[in-house]
Amino acid sequence: MDFFSAMNVSASALSAERTRMNLISSNLANANATRTPEGGPYKRKDAVFAAEQQPENGFGRALDGAAGRHVRQVKVAGIVEDQNPPRMQYDPSHPDADPQGYVALPNVNVVEEMADMINATRTYEANVTAVQAAKSMALKTLEISR
């Protein structure tokens, strides 16, 4: 794997984790939203990641040989809505309460979202470290030729 392949793989992971972090932020911001344009409470959203073959060029194929065929980068395959039912909370004074006095709240668990945020942050940091390591290796290689 050449220098640019390592950078492309890590860059794809950084982009995917940024999308995941944006969705987590949206989920937290709408944790109490009882109305949406579609009607009903907000539904939690999550990113689905998929591994895909890294695009190869002729030069990269010659350098990588058989090992390069196993290099995968991550992409966001889609964004899905959580299909769990909304949380029902008794609050007869709420404007969105049903005739029995229950309000349908989003299916967002704040504790779960915070744990996901920590995981996304750590994964993002790990990929930044991988980019820095690849850059450092490339610089050391250039120093050898001096």
Structural summary, described in words:
- This protein is elongated.
- The chain is 47% helix and 18% strand.
- It is built from three helices and four strands.
- The protein is α+β, with helices and mostly antiparallel strands and 146 residues long.
- The chain has helices spanning 3-29, 58-64, 110-144; strands at 45-53, 72-81, 87-90, 102-105.
- The model has no long low-confidence stretch (mean pLDDT 87).
- Strands 1-2 form a two-stranded antiparallel ribbon. Strands 3-4 form a two-stranded antiparallel sheet.
- It has one domain (3-144).
Q: Which strand order spans the largest sheet, edge to edge or round the barrel?
A: 1-2
In N-to-C order, the SSE pattern is HEHEEEH
Number of strands: 4
Extract low-pLDDT stretches.
Answer: none
Please give the radius of gyration in angstroms: 22 Å
Largest sheet: 2 strands, antiparallel
Query: What class, by secondary structure content?
Result: alpha+beta
| Number of structurally distinct domains | 1
How large is the share of residues in beta strands?
15-25%
Ends: how far apart? 23 Å
The count of helical stretches stands at: 3
- The assembly state of the depicted protein chains is single chain
Overall morphology:
elongated
